[in-house]
Amino acid sequence: MNEGLLLLIGDKIKAKRTQKNITLEQLATRAGVSKGLISQIENNRTVPSLPVLFNIIHSLEEDLRSFFEDMQDSFNNNHILIIRKGQEKMFSKEPVKGFSYKRILTRSITSQATDVVLLGLKKNSVRKQMIRTDAFECKYILKGDIEYQIDKEVFTLHEGDTLFFDGRAPHRLKNIGDTEALILVIYLF
After folding, report:
1. Distance between terminal CA atoms of the chain?
2. Is this model's pTM higher than 0.85 or not?
3. How many Cα atoms within 13 Å fall on the side-chain side of residue 62?
4. Which residues fall within 8 angstroms of residue 153, CB to CB, at 6 or more apart?
């Protein structure tokens, strides 16, 4: 299965679950997994194993073929891809007030899955909990001032700064500037 395609699975699961008015807890119970795992999959923080994925799809009462059908159109082997301004897709990654995500590109590159996202943080926005992802993360500060905590270290980043780290380390961020901040985020799975 195309690794870039795997990144869209979380979005599809979340869309189907909300469309059918199924809670995270209900889906987790039906699929025999934890509520936390479903949340991580939906937010593209982890990629499910095939047995878990099949259990989730079955628990959503979806046919495997139809589940993946419209996702295939996004993945052909073109060597050039242009994403025009305004073609980004808004998505919800976490329930943190003031955070907004726009997916720019999800693509498999040289057998590695890559997810490129714009993260906007309103003034005083903060992620209180430490999180982890199954990816290397590259953050480029397009606008504003950010404080990033990774494990016990705290870094202050300004417009034009880049941060690259292993997302398996616990981390969180907050906007410490006087305006909205904008970050280009690249996840390398």
Report:
1. 14
2. no
3. 23
4. none
